[in-house]
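Board notes (copied after class):
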Amino acid sequence: MDCPTEERLLRKALESLHGVHTLSFDLIQRTLKVGHVLDDPRPIMAAIAGLNMSPVLLEDGSPAAAGEPATQRPPWIRMGLAGLCAIGAEAWAYASGSDDSLPVIAIALAAILLGGIPTLRKGWLALRHFTLNINLLMTVAVIGAALIGQWPEAAMVLWLFGLAEMIEALSLTHARNAIRSLTALAPEQGLVKQGDGAWRESPARLIPVGAEVRARPGERIVLDGIVLRGASSVDQSAITGESMPVDKQVGDTLYAGTINQEGVLEYRVTASAGHSMLDRIAQTIQEAQGKRAPTQRFIDQFARIYTPAVFAVALVVAFSGPLAFGMTWLDSIYRALVLLVIACPCALVISTPVTVVSGLTAAAKRGILIKGGLYLEQGRRLRWLALDKTGTLTHGKPVLTDVVPLAATPMTTALALQLAASLDALSSHPIAHAIVSAHHGELLPVTDFASRPGLGVTGRIAGKAYGLGNLRLAHELGAVDAMLETTMKTLERQGKTTVILCEESVAVAVLAVADTARETSRAALADLRRLNVEPVMLSGDNADTVRAVADDLGIEHARGELLPQDKLVAVEELAMKGPVGMVGDGVNDAPALARADIGFAMGAAGADTAIETADVALMHDDLRKLPEFIRLSRRTGSVLRQNIAFALAVKFAFFALTFTGDATLWMAVFADAGASLLVVFNGLRLLR
């Protein structure tokens, strides 16, 4: 169960069942919650099984994945062989001049058996339950084409439709896997303090709220908690999107799945397994995806009226001719058959996948990976574009921006950088890496080096004691004065992170690092405004940093200090003003990516979950691809409208000829094949 067609079948079968009063569908997780007053759920199970589906009853409260069968691999080989057979049938028919010779029929039948049986089976199921949907329309179209000897066309149309259905199911499987992979960030084991004071490994699912857990350097935090003892820096970008590791000390909050950098932390668990911030993000993604279940395609919507109307008109033509107009039964049935052949949606069915595949291919050549035609079509409607800061508008890693010697000391800029780089060369902290990378000269030997978790580093150079770290380290060394505080505030108002270099007990320089904006961001934002798409920055970073980057890039609307659920709320607010896209690269962006009309992931550097949750991945981390995508979407939408309008115009014109008796079966075939060929050529223009 992963498409709206199957949902409608289930609704029709279950809503009429005595005792059933509510149905709640989750197409992403393939689950159905049935509210009922039955003593035994077996009638519900039987009704679902009657629709050729395999229901698995889940115990109350159990996760959806528990009852889902093992994921099956997409039938690429079978569909590939079906495509070769369909093309082979077309080629043989063209070479031999006959569409219904035995070799052509044999090859076409092979294509139908390899790639079309699921569609035909669904069409038969729809007929049995008196549900006129796209599957039944396709089944009738294929049978109609075969009856008049158009076997190659029958095979090709059925294969294209089956391929589109498979790709749609595959995209939903990716979404399912992305949600499950989120919780894998948190480790399964934690070091827990026992009653006797010893520390022992314990499964995360068995660790209760209130337990004391120890996180060693380099380990991931097992569960949400509050620091009881120790100090360290923690990389929590997976949760908050902050570009820098955050210093943690007693009383600070820790999130499951984040990485302890340096010191040992002991913390008290505040949320059990299944209820951590990471789990809530996964749940939010699932709910957001559920709100945005796959939109029913235009052709399927059109078929809900078109199919029964054509069937009804064909029956009227077949029976009214002899009974009301004195026609022969053969002539009347012939006209009805012509009507059904003309009604065959070949041009409509072929035009959409060919146009969309052409657009998707053109996008791929430009480094834009689009996960389905739906998003390619929707891109032209975007009016708002929310963008994460770290790793999206910026490079996502700190670089040294300033070295400011303090006026009260004889320190030069070059010497300050050399001393700082020499100390930080022995540290693994990202800020240390930024300082070392900025120094291109010789490093000085350091003795008595010590890493001070949550503070910085200390050591001796040429017999003098030096310290390099944050304001707390400077306070400990007695090096804080008014000049230092003024310099730090000036740099921090610009959204920069400051590091203080102390010689003995005197602050001699302040170094600043920042996550700088990508050069391509400015060009991309200007281009988006020319397309009448307004950019909005949403970030988990502190407000000063966000405002500084926004001013640098000329973004009017910017919000900082946002948790994942805050970004989701912000996107929902924008969605009330018009279609909205979301661009991000981290797990913390995933709920907003899922909720947006279109989610864009920065592909090369993005987290797997963000890429899987998003609908479009920018493979080269270049935001200039966004306006390219929107322009391509607008071109694709224009071609689709042209193709649909042309195909329908041809249909209605031949409907009129049928009623006047001027249309023949061969004219119907020619009109249908000709329209199909023209819309294909029109769609292929997108490849240029």
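Comment from the instructor: The chain has 25 helices and 24 strands. The longest strand covers residues 506-514.
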